[in-house]
Write a structure and sequence with these properties.
It contains 9 helices and 37 strands. The chain is of the alpha+beta class and about 575 residues long.
């Protein structure tokens, strides 16, 4: 029966095109206390997350594992785990935090607090406040130079840029610019800073080495009253060639040559454009439009809006996670009869990374794999791949997944090549393609000289390698392995584990490796600890140890599960 189910699941992979890979955009909605999550491939909102009161500034951690949120009316900064998309912590701030910036060390967070006229510096790893820096009246904008030397704050009422030395946490210089400065953006080489001044409609260019203004820009949008031209958000391309300036109630984005400061175009977007962010390959620009309650997506090849995405009330901040989406589980639950086996399981896998699903026998790992591979029907929640639902698009999702089951799924009486040819046929590969792909994988696994041997003649480690080669024939982007080293000796286990890790490095393959053996998990892996059907922890191994106050993953595992490793 299990063999038939496996063949049925594999047959679902036939002849279907692969979904495009996508990333996620996050938008803070100031007036309904939510965060909208947008799939950048479909350009649709896929989730709405309740957050603190009056969320405004949002910011990704440098390792793209967390999202920081200014909950302004709660006088705090919230920390959202991007794997589970749940609030996991809060950080101290001053009164009414509005915007913030993270130092390149990924530790020091500079927070502009509008109501108490200070910039708070917090160590995000210890939650210790390192400094409270007095600045001008109504501090709003915040930026840290890419070289980490300067933190710059804008104060609205005093119309200043405050240049904070990040070593001393003291202001080295104040520069007066136009009225009501809003936002600061650095060039990638840290040599130039751009600052917007809302009242008067100007952008000021600062030479960072000299700490002097070298240019002042103004904007004239055709058909728009000049008093409605109020620059706010600024975004620069990584090559330093172009700048995009959000012009507030003028409802346009200015496209600027960042070398000559010439305005090249004005792009009409939604009402009251506020903040902007570029996607990873800088082909699209997302803008938040507060009054119209939407996000405009601009195609930068054609320089036009290609989509308006409705989000929450008064969208404020926007950031795009550069990581590609692969597989994500959302609130998965499963019961055998009345017995719950999995409860509220949520996680997301990072593209091109080795992930370890660690749990003792009976934790629910095989049940979870059964749901991921459609051997079991979803009872609660959903599974997404590149934003597509397994419920709604099962064949398209399964096409991108390769699977190695815990139990051997090879026909022992067929040769190695015959097993691969049969599997290739299920994927719709021609005989020529099947032979080519099969030989490529066997050669990579060092088994090409065994292609004509019956599988029964291979040892356990070599059989497992053939199963992995078979799972990769259709060139999936995600490989699932359920206890793949079961029954192997220590040397064979290590060799197989090392080989799969090399696949991640060589092919940018995303891997989910389920095991109960702690020695198969490395400290740098993304580790998910599953016990009694619940996900107890999810994050880099070193971080899980830090949270638990332990020195090894084995200690962390035992502390969380009560089971010795």
């Amino acid at each position: 029966m299990k063999s038939l189910l496996k063949k049925t699941a594999l047959a679902a992979l036939l002849g279907l095109s692969a979904p495009a890979m996508a990333s996620l955009a996050y938008v803070s909605n100031e007036k309904d206390n939510t965060l909208s999550v947008i799939d950048t491939e479909t350009m649709e909102v896929i989730e709405t997350i309740d957050v603190g009161a009056r969320p405004r500034g949002i910011l990704l951690s440098k390792d793209f594992t967390k999202l920081y949120i200014c909950a302004s009316d709660d006088d705090t900064v919230q920390v959202l785990d991007l794997a589970t998309r749940k609030i996991i912590d809060t950080l101290p701030s001053g009164e009414d935090p509005e915007q913030f910036a993270l130092h390149p060390n990924n530790k020091h967070l500079y927070i502009a607090n509008e109501d108490d006229d200070i910039v708070t510096v917090v160590d995000v790893t210890t939650k210790i406040v390192l400094a409270q820096i007095d600045v001008g009246i109504e501090p709003e904008g915040m930026a840290v130079s890419p070289d980490g030397k300067w933190a710059v704050n804008t104060s609205e009422t005093t119309s200043m840029l405050h240049w904070i030395n990040t070593e001393t946490f003291e202001i080295d210089k104040n520069i007066v610019i136009g009225q009501r400065p809003r936002h600061v953006e650095f060039s990638q080489d840290s040599k130039i800073a751009w600052a917007s001044a809302e009242i008067g409609g100007t952008v000021h260019i600062i030479d960072v080495d000299k700490l002097e203004q070298i240019h002042e820009m103004s904007f004239k949008v055709p058909g728009v009253n000049q008093d409605r031209v109020q620059p706010v958000g600024i975004e620069l391309t990584s090559d330093g060639r172009y700048a995009f300036v959000a012009l507030g109630p003028a409802n346009h984005v200015a496209v600027v040559n960042a070398k000559t400061y010439e305005v090249l175009d004005y792009l009409l977007v939604g009402s009251r454009v506020w903040q902007l962010d570029l996607n990873k390959d800088e082909t699209q620009l997302y803008t938040t439009n507060g009054v119209s309650g939407d996000v405009s997506v601009i195609d930068l090849d054609d320089m036009k809006v290609i989509k308006s995405i409705k989000v929450g009330r008064y969208p404020w901040g926007v950031v795009i996670d550069p990581k590609l989406m692969t597989l994500a589980a959302r609130n998965i639950g499963f019961c055998y009869g009345r017995k719950p086996v999995l409860t509220d399981i949520s996680f997301a896998l990072d593209s091109g990374r080795f992930h370890a699903l660690l749990g003792p026998n009976g934790a629910g790992k095989s049940t979870l794999f059964g749901l991921l591979t459609r051997l079991l029907a979803l009872q609660q929640g959903d599974i997404l791949f590149a934003g597509q639902s397994l419920k709604k698009h099962p064949a398209e999702v399964m096409r991108q997944i390769g699977v190695v089951f815990q139990q051997n799924a090879l026909d022992l009486d067929l040769t190695v090549r015959q097993n691969l040819m049969y599997h290739s046929a299920l994927h719709g590969l021609s005989r020529k393609q099947a032979r080519l792909r099969g030989d490529q994988e066997l050669e990579r696994f060092g088994l090409l000289d065994r292609a004509n041997d019956p599988v029964r003649a291979l040892n356990g480690g070599h059989r497992r390698r053939v199963e992995i080669a078979r799972a990769l024939l259709h060139q999936p982007t995600l490989l699932l392995l359920d206890e793949p080293t079961a029954g192997l000796d220590i040397a064979s286990r290590k060799a197989l584990n090392d080989h799969v890790r090399q696949l991640c490095a060589d092919d940018n393959l995303t891997v989910l490796w389920a095991t109960h053996l702690i020695e198969e998990v490395a400290a740098q892996d993304r580790v998910m600890i599953l016990h009694q059907g619940r996900l107890l922890a999810d994050g880099p191994g070193q971080e899980l140890c830090s949270r638990a106050g332990t020195t090894t993953l084995a200690e962390t595992f035992e502390l969380l599960t009560g089971v010795g490793s």
